Amino acid sequence: MVGAKLIDMKPEEILVLKNAQERGLCAGKLSEIEVLGDDFENIVVHDFKRARSSSIDFTTRVPKFMQPLAKRILTPYPKINTAQCVGCGKCAESCPQHTITVREHKAHIEYSKCIHCFCCHEMCPKHVINIKRFSLFDL
């Protein structure tokens, strides 16, 4: 909060502070914070230049018509080894999007709804959910 004030930004403009305030993890107002030492109001940088943010998503650098294909090729995804799956359902329980169902004692992922969080991979007690990616990256 104090750092935001020092660079003359409103806390709502900084996503981490905004979310922390909404969750009650930090003060709602700067006036609720005791600042020790010199009066920092005199050292506020009013002409602070923010860094330009840029996407780390490579797919935005390819032509627009190729972006869906590039995204599909470049995005890793969870893949269930159904031959070894015991159908315990831990992956389905941990999936925040509820895209995994267990049918006939085997887990199945509805990829169109998958958000690629890999919770299923982390929670599978048998370690039969692997993270797959374009094989060129395995070189």
Describe this structure in words.
- This protein is an alpha+beta fold and 139 residues long.
- It is built from 5 helices and 4 strands.
- The mean pLDDT is 88.
* Secondary structure: helix percent: 10-25%
The overall pLDDT, averaged over residues, is 88
State the order of secondary-structure elements, H for helix, E for strand. Answer: HHHEHEEHE
Number of helices: 5
> Could you state the oligomeric state of the chains shown?
single chain
| Percentage of residues in strands | 5-15%
Main structural class: alpha+beta
Q: Whole-Å distance between the termini?
A: 46 Å
Poorly predicted ranges (pLDDT <50, ≥5 residues)?
A: none
Strand order of the largest sheet: 1-4
Q: Give the beta-strand count.
A: 4
Q: Name the shape in a single word.
A: elongated
What's the gyration radius in Å? 23 Å
Quick one: biggest sheet?
Answer: 2 strands, antiparallel
In short:
With 139 residues, the protein is an alpha+beta fold. It has helices at 2-6, 15-22, 67-74, 90-94, 119-123; strands at 77-80, 100-103, 106-109, 129-132.
Task: Itemize the secondary structure elements and their pairings.
Elements lengths: L1 H5 L8 H8 L44 H8 L2 E4 L9 H5 L5 E4 L2 E4 L9 H5 L5 E4 L7
Antiparallel strand pairs: 1-4, 2-3
What are the defining features of this structure?
5 helices, alpha+beta, about 140 residues, two-stranded antiparallel sheet, elongated
